[in-house]
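fold description:
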Amino acid sequence: MKKREAQKGDYSAKKWITFSSLVVVLSLICWGVWAGVEKISDSGRKITIGLQNMPTSLDMRTTWNPNAQRVLLQNVYQGLLIRNDQNEVAPGLASGWSESDNGLLYTFQLRKTFFSDGKRVNAEDVIWSIETLVREKYPGYMDFAGVSAFSAPGPYTVQIHLSHPNPELLWYLAGPSSIIIEPNKYNYQGLPVGAGPYVFSSQGPQSITLTRNRYYWHKPYYSTVVFKYFSSSSKELSALEDGSIQGALDLASSPSDAASFNINRGVSSKIVTLIFNDHPSSLMSDLKARRSMRLLIDKEQVISASGGLGLTVGGPVPRLDPGYEDLTGEFPYNQKEGKASMDYYYNKTFTLAYRNSLVKKAAQSIKSQLAAVGIKLEIYKLTPDQWTNDVVNSMKYDMALYISGGSHTLGTWVSGDAWWGWDSPQADQVYHQAILSPNYGTYTEGMSQTARLVASGQPADWLYQMQLLGVWDKGISGEPQNLTDYCVPVFNLKG
């Protein structure tokens, strides 16, 4: 059995207690208010963090709700595992886990930790949370498609039995589909009752306030965390500079006095992608045309035109994902070679559709670059309904600019079920062999092989992986840097 446990920190009980402390404990027991855990005193420390796009609902269980997920996941709700800043799984409500050699059994040991109302988290809570998700078909229920059964050998031990190996299961167990909730106490719109380090306290017109969960196994530095929402990056930046907030995410630019702040450039898992229409009615159904188009587009120019927050990737797997390789060298910018192979499209006009305003400048950069070599490109900004009709259903485009991915979404490129329609039987076979492997090394190598096969088929040009700008007051440490468009964990903050 392969075994993983949490690292031991500075949370062990003191070897002795004073007589006065003993008296206090006995008094609490006599009065019936000792809840079986250490109740942590409030330090009074507070931090305010700027964001954009305030959630309209706090329900992240029954609907896909990324804005609520950003502030509630890992903070108010946790699963058996969490994802760290490098997108790796780490202990959460479970202190550790073991895996059988055949990849069909995972065993988790729960910490001595509690829901925010004081009830200790047990194995039945874990099993009920996941089984209810699957039965009700809440978002993410397919994450557990290969699970055959759950069992509880003890009150604080959970076992997950699989019908086939799934090296991605641990990653799913650290995601939003796997939050552990107290049975019959999940309030879809009101006060969430979770088992994370913080408790939902209040919601204002433009803010959400969390306070420390005094029953959590580890004491966060800040007793109060306020997420304050702004309508623009400039307003958020002004609030940071005048001191009304101490950290800011979702920024488009750095403060003018950069030396006064800690500035981080993390990565999102999202990739700005130029999809090629592989349908015979499109000019881009020709593999030679797709290859030439990739050679003609300078990704660094696209990044610069889009504000400078981006990193080239060259393939469908983002940084921090298993199997990532920098594939930009496979199709480097080569204007001369690209133009020579596009000569047979002389006097043809290509079309490019997009719907997200975030990629408007990227579209304009592509048009400008192609115009410089005599290729005509017409750009169309589509409404959501137009996008569904013209792009997804009717395929009336040559190219479509799209923000693709998210972490662990390589499978969408090989299934043939995505709206762009491209598939590869060879890539599909390699991918499915990898996700059925009990060996994690074999799995990651399979992801790399799949990505290379997809990139060589050239269904798209992966222009750049989006970056995330975070700015914090000097002296603050433990700030999240990567994937903060997915989740903003605050329990490691100090300063």
About this structure: The mean pLDDT is 89. DSSP finds twelve helices and 18 strands in the chain.
